[in-house]
Amino acid sequence: MRRAPTILHLDMDAFYASAEQAAKPSLRGKPVVVGGIGPRGVVSTASYEARVFGVRSAMPTAQARRLCPNAAYLTPRFTLYRRVSDQVMELLHALSPLVEPLSLDEAFVDLEAGGTEADTAAARAVGERLRRDIRRTTGLTGSVGLAGAKMLAKIASEQAKPDGLVVIEPGTERELLGPMTVRTLPGVGPATAETLRRAGIHTIAETAEAGEAELVRLLGKAHGTGLYAMALGRDERPVVAERDAKSISVEDTFDVDLTDRTRVRAEVTRLADRCVERLRAAGRSGRTVVIKVRNYDFSTLTRSETLRGPTDDPSVVREAAARLLDLVDTTGGVRLLGVGVTGLADFTQEDLFAQLATEKAAEEEAERERRVAAEAAREAADEPERPRRWLPGLDVIHEEHGAGWVQGSGVGRVTVRFEQPWSGPGRVRTFPVDDPALRPGEPLPLVGGPAEPSTGPAQEGPAQKDPAQKGADQKAPAPQSSAPATLPNSVSARAASEPGTGPETESGAGMSSR
Ligand SMILES: [Mg+2]
């Protein structure tokens, strides 16, 4: 436990939903739910306006629709979220070499390791500046918690939400934690909470008062001891940067399930390269290559292969990953792919000369692969138009009307709202699903688009309406006729309700290319 609150926890506010509201002016200030839109879908993120109705992350989307039928139900656009996440992580890395990402929008930072003075005022100043930088760079808001321990910093950022900063001064944590429900502590799920409730323990203060022996009796040695320490605010876990990690992995979730085997292979190759990039950046090498595949039905499996020695050679990792992929059936559709390397060492033991000799071969091979991939992409582009699945929320471009997003589709029609992050709320138009003038688009940048004719750096421009202001005062002139941002749920749900059917009809349609 530190004497100064120099462990920072950043958590972006309702990340996916806020990004969608920033991208889609008509949805600002309105309930937005991002997640699986099919009948078995699950909510990823609900905007604050939707949370008022009781919609929560991990809730079945069907239940969310009952609670909040007027929300916009959107399919996630991970390409965009990853882009914003990269910007945020870059800002964090500027603060300290010790950054521990927990997800796309959440991370711990050890400020002292980055040279911030060990006192409250200095830490607070860094936190406030970070929040301003995040807003300016991404157009979105994040909340910051500062404390002397990771667990407390995370509780602080939760309290700071939305769009705030909370410092827990070392020495005050017991007083602060005392009245909170024991569920606030990490690792206390419904089952543990129920066990504790039956023993008359509800709050963190009661947990501390129960004493270690009683908690061990109730929950077992490991859990009981750990819980007692946390109830006292004791948490000595260090912030672990990637370079000290025991494994390095990268993964991608796809906007639309991948069914085309060539495409799956190309993605695995790309992930292997990204993984090796990170491995090399950290000055590490690893011995075991792992792939992770999540299917359309969320079943997830991993396969691993251990090499004879540690490597940071992209062609070695690529080949191992490809061999592992050969063991996996992906015909039902793939939702997520990951490639990782574990068993890390600080240097490679491969013979340097052998490596030099293979380098040229690897380069040639990489070049060959690039050609094949480019060819495949061209082929895909030349393919005759097939009926597409226009999932709500995805980007489209219309030859005449420009950039917009799918508001809903079904019975042979697709409804598109034509608006951009920098425009006012746009108009809705409906087209036949096979309208040749309509094609999938790319996510537009949330900040720095062709906004105002202002000349200065776009970030400072007046065009940057703060999308996180809950839209209460969005003053962009709404067209008189603009309908509430409600999607034709029944049809869009039906259109998206056939996971795994006809893999051959789906090759890449609607996929955002990277
Ligand atoms: Mg978040």
UniProtKB/TrEMBL annotation:
InterPro entries: DNA/RNA_pol_sf, DNA_pol_Y-fam_lit_finger_sf, DNA_pol_Y-fam_little_finger, DNA_polymerase-Y, DNApol_IV, Rev_trsase/Diguanyl_cyclase, UmuC. Keywords: Cytoplasm, DNA damage, DNA repair, DNA replication, DNA-binding, DNA-directed DNA polymerase, Magnesium, Metal-binding, Mutator protein, Nucleotidyltransferase, Transferase. Binds 2 magnesium ions per subunit. Its main location: cytoplasm. The record marks 16 as: Substrate discrimination. Its EC number is 2.7.7.7. The active site is at 106. It is found in: Cytoplasm. GO terms for cellular component: cytosol. One of its GO terms (biological process) is error-prone translesion synthesis. Mg(2+) binds at residues 11, 105. It catalyses: DNA(n) + a 2'-deoxyribonucleoside 5'-triphosphate = DNA(n+1) + diphosphate. Its cofactor is Mg(2+). Residues 474-485 have a biased composition (Low complexity). Residues 365-386, 421-514 are annotated as: Disordered. Belongs to the DNA polymerase type-Y family. Monomer. This is DNA polymerase IV.
